[in-house]
Every structure is written in C-alpha cells, then in structure tokens.
Amino acid sequence: MDHHFVGIPELTGVPRVAVVIDVMRAFTVAAWAFSRGVEKLVLASTEGEALALKESHPGWLALKDGAPAAGFDAVNSPGLLRSCDFTGRTLVQKTTAGTVGALAVADAPLVLCASFVVAGPTARFLRARDVGPVTFVVTGEGGQADEDLACAEYIGHSMAGDDVDVAPYLHRARASRAAADLAGGLRSGYHPDDVDLCLEVDRFPFAMTARREQSLTVLRPVAASDAPSGSAESGNQPSSAGSRPKRYGSPVPPHRPGG
Q: Which end of the chain is more exposed for a tag (fewer CB within 10 A), N or C?
C-alpha cells in the first residue's frame, strides 16, 4: 500500500486519513494518561491556551513539555505520569511536536495519534476500516526523527495484516537522537525510564483518535476493532499495579460549553 510519510512542514492540503506519530514522548504520554483514567485530552496550540482552557474549565488539568512550570499539573514524561491517578479528568496537552502535528491535520476526516505503545491497535483500527493509503505525519525533527519514522513504517506494514517483526524498528528508535537525548538527561521533565516506556510495543489495547469537538481538538481512546467511534476499551482505566497513584482531587463533572 502506498502510504505517505511527511513532516509537519511538508503538509499541504487536508489528508483523507492521517496518523500523527510522536514516540518520544507526546503520544506515549497520551496513552499513559488514558491508562491512568483520563477521560479525554484537549490539544492546545500554545502554553497560554493550555492554561486558559484549564482556568475556564474547573477540574481540568494541564500538561506541557519541559520542566515543571506554574499552572501546569504534569510534564510530558511517561515515567513521571505512570504513578498518577487522573480518573475522570480532562487533561490539556501542549508539546513541541506531537500536538502541533495533530492540530495541523485536525480537519482531516480521520485522525489518529500514535506511538509504539499503541502501534498494533492503531494498525488494527485502520485495517478494520479498510481506509486505504494513510498520510503518516512524522512530527519529530521536521519529519526526520527516526523513532517516529520507524513507528510509522511499522504501523504501515502491520496494516497489511502480516506478522511484522518489530525488532528492527525498535532498534532504530532506540538508536535515535531523541532516545540519546533522553537517556543522557538532555531534555527537561524526564524520568530515567522514559526511553524504555516509549519502546513498549502494544503496552495498551486501544487506538487514539483526534477530532473536532466544538472549537477544540480532542483526543480519545477507541477500541482497536471496528467499533463505533468514541468507544473506549477497558484499558483506559487506572491500573491497580505499582505504587499508590498520586491523586488530583475528586473528579469534576464535565463543563459542557466549549468542549
């Protein structure tokens, strides 16, 4: 199948089907957030917008790249996020590459966000719908990030239904510049386990779709099989394994206006 692999700067027009890849770390973090109980993620274009959305929606939380900052409740690190309990919460996410790529194709009829931790479910979701050629948006390094390209190629090959050996793709991701930067502590807001957590293939059983909801772009977990859009598998519940999760107060009923 003749898929297209492009960086954010290379996007022209609106693709029919887009899969936005950010392995290290936006869409690994998003999957972990759903596993810790998040109901939905709202993708913000700027840190200011993220804080404004949090402020105008009581009970919402905000997450950003880099070091912790005033007003933000979490950082873009799966290792730091995995001990949190976000049951029933909405999390506003702003990152350097992943959220930018998703917002760039938000008007496409079908948009998925992915990384290795949801690669298999993403491929099955697309295969069940027989979507045809996909535009893979490689968000890192202007489209040159090998960890993102490797994940995109793996999903693309897996869509054919073949038994694809993931080892060569993981090797490329582990040898990438992003992995070296994370392992070397060169990125703020990181945990020593982040690289390993980003390379756990099919850690979660759901895919993640992004779509417009009123004026916002919202990411939600969906079943990998051909189920109605918006349905989530049981995987988006907080795990009982591991240390006692950090709680963020009692869930607040969703604020309806504005998404």
A: N
